[in-house]
Write the structure tokens for this entry.
Amino acid sequence: MIIFRADGNPDIGLGHIMRCLSIADAGQKFDVHSLFIAASDDFKDVIKEHGHEVIILNTDYKNMLSEVNEMDKLLRMYRPSALFVDSYQVTSAYMYALWETCKSVNSRLVYIDDVLAFAYPCDILLNYNIYGPDKKDEYKSLYQKKRILCPELLLGTSYVPLRAEFQSLPDRVVKKQAQKILISTGGADPDHIAMELAKYIVCNDSKFEQFHFHFIIGAMNDDRFEIEKLTAMNDSLILHCNVQHMQLLMSDVDLAISAAGSTLYELCATQTPAVTYILADNQMPGAEKFEENEVLRCVGDIRQLKSSFTEKVLEEAVRLAGDYEERVRIADRQRLVVDGNGAKRIIEAVRRGKKYV
């Protein structure tokens, strides 16, 4: 058995849950049973739909230290082969407590990292981001300063945990005339980006008359009904809610607009050229590395762009739509970034013996 400790709610969206689900789903192919533990029941049904059990702690996801005793009991009860922790709210004390319990029940503690906040006490540290390999020395330095063994490091896009639908895809045939633009703003979209983009398109419809904009609206998006009203006013806006097969939608469009989160790796797997933007500090390294590698174009940080963001990101998308050679080049580079087998490699690493670096 593997246990996943991850949260999802309107404040933080669905990202942590989804990447853990991809790993859990890959584990099913190895006959590995998975159990999810979450602070709240916001996405309990999503987890169950994937065929996994879930335990709800009914705790404050921001105060993880308060759940240590309950986690200790659950770990001793289930004695999993591994515990995956995926949260930005962890503290050193919390991780140390879990690590000690994991040692006592012969479990491996795995932490999924994006931010290099401190030397996370664990057996395996996973940073699947495109900038992950660049951080190897930084990770080693963090652990050396704390005088604890550096865990096994799984770094880079070989370990991107994508769902099965994104694996072994055929090469994209890039269309000379791009007409379909996908807009993905995450499960919650607390910055109301989708609504602002939809408003701008409706108010400037003559500028975008040759395009169809496919909006993906997440389960926690509070603007859904407002966006539905806007789509009724303009035929170029198409709304997609509760999308079950994201790969099919990404493969069907010509390019995308997306925040610089985990969706970028799905776009790479489907070879969908994209314009990206930054919502939070932890997205900066990825956005910068993608642009440095000439894989995706980033228009900047919305916190700095503010009111100019909407016009800028749409103008860049239109520019990319009109550049066939650039879209072909980007699609070729995207295939080199992600092959879709990352979740399988993670499960294989967990099943191996302990290895420290």
